Amino acid sequence: MRVETPRSTTRLSVVGVSGAGKSTIARAAAKHLRAPYIELDAIYHGPNWTPIPLSEFRRTVAELVAGDGWVIDGNYRDVRDLVWARATTVVWVDPPRPVVMAQVIWRSMLRAATGEELWHGNREDIRAWLDPEHPIRWAWRTYRQRRSEHESLMAPHWVRLRSRGDARRWLDSLR
Question: Which of 18, 44, 81, 91 could form a disulfide with 139 if both were Cys (CB 3.0 to 4.6 A apart)?
Answer without folding.
Answer: 18
